[in-house]
Amino acid sequence: MTMDSKTGPAGQAPPSEPEPFHAGRSIGGSALREQARKHYQLGNRFFDFRAMERAQDEWRRAAWLWRLAAAVRTARIERVTDLRAVILLLLTVLLAFNLVYGLFPRNPADLAVSPDDETAEERTTWWERWLDTGHPQGGGAPIVTLHDWWLRLEHRWRTGSEEPEPDLNVRQDLDQRWPDLVARYRRPGETEPLDYHLVAGYGFLRSGDFNRAAQAFASGLPAARRPKQRADLYQGLANAHYYAGYRTDAQGLAVYDLAQVRQAAQAYQGSVQAEPRGLSFGNLGWMYFLLGQYDRAEAASQRALRMDGTLHYVRLNLGLTFLVRGQEDDAYEAYRTVILAQPGADALDGGIDDLRWLLRDHPKAYPFGDLMLGLLARAKGDRVLAQRELGRFLAGRPSGARWQRLAQQALHSLDSPVGGL
């Protein structure tokens, strides 16, 4: 074979650029490096034969292939680096997920079992139980924000893992409040989605943040379509306004902001229009009473009792309405009915406090209230209060002989809750 310094073997001119691989076929970095080595050795042979141009051409081919091999290797390293970055990001998200969820105790049993039915079967799946952290799962736009979770963390940081002492003025932890709310508003077997506006509203309400509670309830109303859902939201909104305008004096008796009471009355009206309920009618009657609309208070209370005759607090409110209107016989019958039913101490305490509140704001205006207060105190077992109020009533020299005899009999039978009634 003859070599020409300009043309190479067989008189062919060398190509200007190498062709290390064919279209449609890719070559790895090791194959490229092997071809580069061969071209480099071939260049050395041309150099030995003093074919400088062919030697330089082969060396250029070798250099180009080495650069290409290095580029292939770099791209592969970059892909591996990107894959590692993605894996690290996923691990970081997973760790953050577990960290956040690990901060809050999981208590799926409270979410699955109704407080009214201890034998109810568990509602959630294994996956739902694993995800459950004590806050509700479900559809809808959540009202609870990052600030609310920060309040939880702040409380935990301040009190540690132990429960706060009973005498400390610390808000109830959200960990304890959420399960109760979810169990209340989504019982086992229910298919309706959980209303986050409702749950968040009562969460704020129980934490004492009445303004945010009202905002949470009100924000859910535009999207509420079902009557029950609207009634629940309106009732929650009414409760928020009522408690926003409620405080107690040094004696523990109520002081009301009537502007908030009016807003509560409007919300209760919306609730009973959406879905009539005895409880809502009873609360609406109390709002009317506080506003001095006694006819409307009586009508709403009577409607509530027709729907549910066991609402003792409504009957006590009705008795108070009769009392301020001077209907002593009707007032006595309302109080007598409650006392004969022997309800729990909570109902009697409510009636006693309402009478004390009325007598505080209207001293000596309703002497009949002293007699009713004495009878309620006796029914509760408070001998001191009963003796004081019954004695005060008799000291006022009541005009009705019937009421005078009733007070005297009650004084002689303080240990009998229903004696002489």
Q: How would you summarize this macromolecular structure in one to three sentences?
A:
The protein has helices at 29-48, 52-102, 108-112, 126-131, 146-159, 174-185, 196-206, 210-220, 227-244, 258-274, 278-290, 294-307, 312-324, 328-341, 345-361, 368-380, 383-395, 401-412, and strands at 246-248, 254-256. It has 421 residues and is mainly alpha-helical.
What does this structure look like?
The protein is rod-shaped and about 145 Å long. It is an all-alpha fold and 421 residues long. 31% of the residues are buried. A hairpin with a 5-residue loop joins β1 (246-248) and β2 (254-256). α17 (383-395) packs antiparallel against α18. Among the domains are: 29-100; 310-421, Serine Threonine Protein Phosphatase 5, Tetratricopeptide repeat (Alpha Horseshoe). The chain has helices at residues 29-48, 52-102, 108-112, 126-131, 146-159, 174-185, 196-206, 210-220, 227-244, 258-274, 278-290, 294-307, 312-324, 328-341, 345-361, 368-380, 383-395, 401-412; strands spanning 246-248, 254-256.
